[in-house]
Specification:
single chain, about 260 residues, alpha/beta
């Protein structure tokens, strides 16, 4: 593993390597450790910063029910703490929702965008209701219920059957999450705004990347999103599900390296 540096505050973070700054935002219900395969491979290309949302990883839990803007404000606060004027910003799944909100709040600080296994549309009524039910179960039964509710959705069948290392890594991150942080994140995702009006206004280079077997943000959803973003590139990774950076790290890292080459100075 590459050398890392960590810090406390509302958003704890891990930092790897040197070079142009890249901030990657993690998926729900995981934490910044999900980007360890990228930290190892990208350390010589960029300064990789991977925050933990409040209530996940090493970050303290939120005091009340936040909205998605709360998480984006946390990212802005982290950029201020690190004295970073502009960064390449990326996110997987929920990380993409937060990245869209960052685009609303401080587009002038984003030099490039990575949207992985995410979507611009808000939740449907069915999805909203499912998040409410999940939040109630987590509040009543603990984060252990997420193993039952999420593993089959997050990982491709091939990963579940053949990659015990990734399965156990995901399981461990889920079980170590804070129940209050999980419930807060579910509420924020449920109430997030529609980001589709933003797509045609994105003016920075954008990489849209996802998994061939992602049942949440399908290749069709990702392709349609990429087609609405000017000067974007779209990559689909074979045999990967919703956590494509963990399931297909070689392909994911190759796409990131190719994308980030243009930001080297």
């Amino acid at each position: 593993m590459a050398d890392s540096r960590t810090s406390g505050g509302m958003m704890s973070y891990r930092e790897f390597g040197e070079g142009p700054p890249v901030v990657l935002l993690h998926a729900f219900p995981l934490d910044s450790r999900m980007f360890e395969p990228q930290a190892e491979d990208l350390a010589g290309l960029c300064r990789l910063i991977t925050p933990d949302y409040p209530g996940f990883g090493r970050s303290p839990r939120v005091p009340a029910q936040p909205d998605v803007r709360y998480y984006a404000e946390g990212v802005r606060g982290l950029l201020d703490r690190l004295k970073l004027d502009r960064v390449v910003l990326g996110g997987v799944s929920m990380g993409g929702y937060v990245a869209f909100e960052c685009l609303r709040l401080f587009p002038e600080r984003i030099s490039g965008l990575i949207l992985a296994n995410t979507r611009a549309e808000p939740d449907s009524e069915e999805m909203r209701e499912n998040r409410k039910k999940m939040a109630r179960r987590v509040a009543d039964e603990g984060v252990e219920v997420l193993i039952e509710l999420q593993m089959q959705r997050l990982l491709a069948p091939d990963t579940l059957e053949r990659n015990e290392t990734v399965v156990e890594k995901v399981r461990a991150m889920i079980l170590e999450s804070n129940p209050n942080g999980v419930v807060a994140a579910l509420g924020a995702m449920r109430e997030r705004p529609d980001s589709t009006p933003l797509l045609g206004k994105i003016e920075v280079p954008t990489l849209v990347i996802g998994g061939e077997e992602d049942g949440i943000s399908s290749p069709e959803v990702m392709r349609a999103m990429a087609e609405k973003i000017p000067a974007s590139r779209h990559v689909t990774l074979p045999r990967a599900g919703h956590l494509s950076n963990l399931e297909a790290p070689e392909g994911f890292n190759a796409a990131l390296k190719d994308f980030l080459e243009s930001f080297r100075t």
